[in-house]
Amino acid sequence: MKQDRRYLERLSIQFPTEGAAATEIINLSSILNLPKGTEHFITDIHGEYQPFLHILKNGSGSIRKKIDEEFKNFLSEKEKKSLATLIYYPEQKLAEIHQTQKDIDEWYRLTIYRLVRVNRRIASKYTRSRVRKMLPEDYAYVIEELLNEKEEVKNKEAYYNGIISAIVSTQRASHFIVVFCNLIRRLAVQRIHVLGDIFDRGPGAHIILDTLLGYDNVDFTWGNHDVCWMGAASGSRVCIASVVRISVKYGNFHTIENGYGINLLPLARFAMDTYTDDPCFCFPISGSQEYEPYDFEMDKKIHKAITVILFKLEGQLIARHPEYGMSSRRLLDKIDFLSHTVTIDGKRFPLEDCNFPTVDPKNPYELSNEEKFVMDKLVYSFINSEKLQRHAEFLFSCGSMYRVYNGNLLYHGCVPMEEDGSFKKVRVGEGAYGGKALFDVLEEWVRKGYYSSDVAERELGQDIMWFLWANENSPLYGKERMATFERYFVKDEACRNEEKCAYYSLLDNEETIFAIMKEFGLDAANPDAHIINGHMPVHPKNGETPVHCNGKLLMIDGGMSRPYQRETGIAGYTLVGNSYGLRLVAYEPFISTEDAIKNESDIHSVTEVVQLADRRLCVGDTDEGRRMKENIEEIKQLLEAYRTGEIKEKI
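Structure (tokenized):
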């Protein structure tokens, strides 16, 4: 496309001479032929920070793969494991090695040499300038010298050995090794895609987000748990009650109190006063691996107190929005306090617990004065938590409802559909939307719920965040209902069933999957185009497969969350895309970081090749490559303008 003169004039500021323009064309053209960088897709982490951080450190096995390729039969299996563990956990491993190595200087020399070789292999996908930008300032020159071959140096071995010896003799070897290992990990994966649900169940969502804040190559597609926390950060009372309930249920007081500084003392006092003699046997604490109860009986009372508050707030919201179609989820007014029963979908069930001292049968959804006080305090804590606000802003800046990247469509949950495979129309505000338009309008309202200065707009956006958390028409949820009340109070498991929406019965329907791809702008005929999906755990032990529609759709939630692992039979999936294609990695449970360091144990994984490229993919085949090609064409026009005299060089 021919650019106008004004655009070329602006471009000439960046490239002021014919030589500068020609050089940029040459540079960009050469980058197009580099191998495509590695993409790492991961989903449904649910606060399990230890296995997540380990997977992040080992690049879903890509670092160990590079070690195997580089050293083949030159190193023993034990030496390869030791080198890999050092790269993953350099500070901890060095502390251990310092206690066992007799000739530490020789170990330093050998280790640095091996790290250089691994780093060279990984850095080969990048230009020197890109690697240079990742180098720490203190060691930039030294690392660059070690990584780049010097053809002009006759005795290269002596030259490089001299550099390594100088590092050791100046007693900077330990620090240098840490820096080098960090660089290897950063170079191993070019892009990290998180497909939602960082929060809840496990104890370390705040640790995961603190870690990802240190990366500039990460993006998110929001999950329903994430959006609920984003709603809580915005001050939504119903979202706050939701995330507190789940945190308490799973014993994640550490995340709430220590991670985000949320003050639960008013809630605890209220719970102890209100439910003093109540055993709260329907409200056990599931307990994360880091749950250390100060008072288990008090924790159960806190669990019940916030749950009852939540049901009231949900009932208020559902009444405000009849268009959500959730009136059947208002169950407090369906309780018969005399017979201790509840009517659900026209059928009466006995209640396991009917002690509701704060529920007025005449006005069951009205918060008591004490409950209002508790919620006021919680809202204040959530909106004034500096770390939570920083994490929420990170999720807004790097996240979205869906993402199209390098020909792949990424989303967390589903595309709401009718039984016949057509896009379901869902009421949002004053309109009805389906397909991509539904995702777009919902994202617009989520952002308004956090950022809008208009009070009415902000409140509606916050209500839509809760809609995304629990509604059957939410692209982030996709079940007919969230049976929270039934799981607490009704013994009959039949009424606890949460039926999946039509989308999940159409995963192998080629016509449906191709229609979704077309709706979001993908070419379904392109073998490199896929839908990558999280949210719904795959159960391999029951014969379920993550690969659908002949490999066009990939469900990559394998149950990283510990409570799911008994059901799935594995401890999670990650998907790795590189210049050779796509491979799906299934993991066995991660024992602990301490075990990984001490015993040099990695997460055992099984890799399934999903797609093998018919040729090695290059940067030119990626979104970044397409943008580079557009830039090249624009700069070529500038170059021509210089040569014809239409634009004068700025010499």
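Residues 296-320 form the longest helix (25 residues). The chain has 26 helices and 17 strands.
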